Amino acid sequence: MSRIQPIYSDRVRYKLSHNPTGTQTVQEPRGWKEDDNEFVRNKTFHGIFPQMTNNLSFFNTGAEFIEKIWDDYGVNADLILIKEERNPTTDIWETSYSGFLDMLTYSKENKGVSIKFISSGLLRVIKARENEKIEIDRTDTLKGLTIPYLEPNRVNLNGRDIHLASLLETKADESSSFVFRANFSSTNRRFGSLGVPAAITYASDVLVNGIPKDVSFKTGNPGDSVEASANVEQIFYGIADRDRTLTVKIKVSFNLSEHKIDDLSNASMYLRLATYGTGTEYLFVKRENLTSSLISNSSVIQDTVFINITRTIQILEGQSLSLQLYGEANFGSVIGGDGDMDVDFTNIDARIQIDEDSTFNPTVSNVHLPFEVFERYLELFTNQKGLLRSNILGRTDIDYPQDGAVSRIGMAHGFWIRGFSKDDVAEINEENRYKSMTMSFKDMYSSYFSVWNLGAGIETIGFKEIFRVEELEYFYNRNVLIRLGKVVNGEFVYVKVSNEKRSVDKEVFNSGLEIGYSKGGDYEEAVGLDEYNTKSTFTTIIDKVEETYTEVSKLRADSYGMEFCRRFPRENHATEDTKYDSSTWLIDMKKGSGTILNQRLWADDFSQAPTGVFSPQTAQNLRLSPFNILLRHGWVIAAGLIKYPLNYIRYGSSVSNSGMKTKLDVSKYPDIGGTEYAENGNIQGDKLETARTNGMIIEFDYEVDYNLLQDIQGKTVILGKEIPNFYGLVEFKNEEGLIEQGYIQKVSPNGAGKWTLKKYNS
Predict the structure, then answer these.
(1) How far apart are CA 420 and CA 433, in angstroms?
(2) Does residue 673 form part of some domain?
(3) Where in the sequence is the domain holding 91, given as residue range(s)?
(4) Longest dimension (CA), the chain
(5) Is the pTM above the cut of 0.70?
């Protein structure tokens, strides 16, 4: 037992702490001094996390305390190890190191307990749960604790004007023949109609229908005073869900010949555009004959027909349109018996193009704000509230000094956008088709990180860990917060580092960029839409690596997709599923009147209206476009392009239309605003925001004494905000006697003190 340290020493002591069990002072764990404890920058979050990798061994009171915690709480126990040292100046006990013991590594041997030390229990929990898909509005945590329902906010969706373009064409296999057959023995006037066959080539309007061949003949009954109603198979557009204004272009050609025309009087036949009403009853409203009569009482008058017309049609709610061959006559009225109106049509080629500058009445949707969602995930994982700190996500209404830039970029899933809500649960019937917003924490946070260039870290308040989310700049602060040297006669003096080594920072060099969204733009409903929030690729001047800088959001931001979803409201489509129901959209919002939010439009952030996009006044989520995302990531991308300032990042491809141009207001976005950029444009390297690192890694030795360790783990107030020192610049004197700066990549305090820095781009 001679190797066991006493419980107390003059300068150092160790404690184990567990809530609710309490705190126990213990002997120094065996393995501490030889442990490679480090401060390491996380590649995913960019925050810096202390970490240890070796086993620690506890004996006597330490082993007994850990055993009790294991017996009572198992692998989920949050057991904290605290190292305290006396301040060399004040002689006051201060925490020099703290972290969690990993209960998964618990083992008992040689009258002691062996266990590994981890810096962050919260990070461990997050990494264990981050890929699990979770319903956000569930009312119990993953550990079974009952929690309140997460009440959503509300947002006005004024809608996106859409140019709806649809086309129907006669299929090649239907162009050979087409017949009109009417045979009656009544002397009463009879009539019939037959839809001109045309299949959907593309349709951005769900009201467009294909017309099959030879199945849609409709006749009137003897004594009818008005024309017959239509069959549904004859309708190429309907039933209108609201009053609409359509531009309909009709191009039709065919040949016709007499099969049998006999015993008719007052006969006529036309190619016509007919309007029907009263919903599914398809009652005749009006017609426009597109030709003169094609037959007489005894024969075909016109054997070749070509029509090319354009009409602006005001169609009312409940109405439908049909392109048809229509014939009428008195049958069997000349010689008595049967009358025949039988005509053959060949070489049919029909084309019906329907265009609409379409609007849809405003609606209101539920929406979650990001602060509440981030915090909710942490509560679901840990059973603890209040674990999130974030100025970028914070708002004045939740006690932050100002609204963060990302604070109202909210989330809404398809069912909310369609008007379904949790309140519908009371209706448990066919009309209740509500589904919860479901996603993984990783998909959510990585989407926000991609769209706005955010990062995250674990910080401690007392012994409580909190999750910090901020703009990436927070984790690469430009202020010098750590200096390597000593105070001599009241003045700071730099001390040279040793064993210097320099190498290329391979992480910053990329031959290509992939930016935007994994979904959006590839709509089955539409052809040629100008959606801008899709995925774009770019190339750089770097051609010696195959790495791609990838920032692609799992959450959607496409305004057209959201608008298509919105146009299937619950009130009209309560029992219909859509492909958008389970999608989740980012919605860029601002304060509205009262508690209801409004969507941001171009005037909120840009100095001029966007060009190259349909209906710029209703364009949404403009700040979230791929090129504007690229600008926000610019200083990171620029680190690999410092030696090539005049070379361009060049546009490669996009999933959909990328011709939109925007110009961020420089007064609101001083770092990236003031220049107009096209989504399919190029940008010169020196036009990106200035890089904070320069593509080099510096390694050296420098001893980490008590005071320096306190500096590394300390915080500094900058512009009223407390910043962990290890996110600031480290300033040091190199072996040549020159002063340099860099950002901590890794620091190993033990022994000689091993430092790895990303060199600052000064």
Answers:
(1) 8
(2) no
(3) 12-119
(4) 130
(5) yes
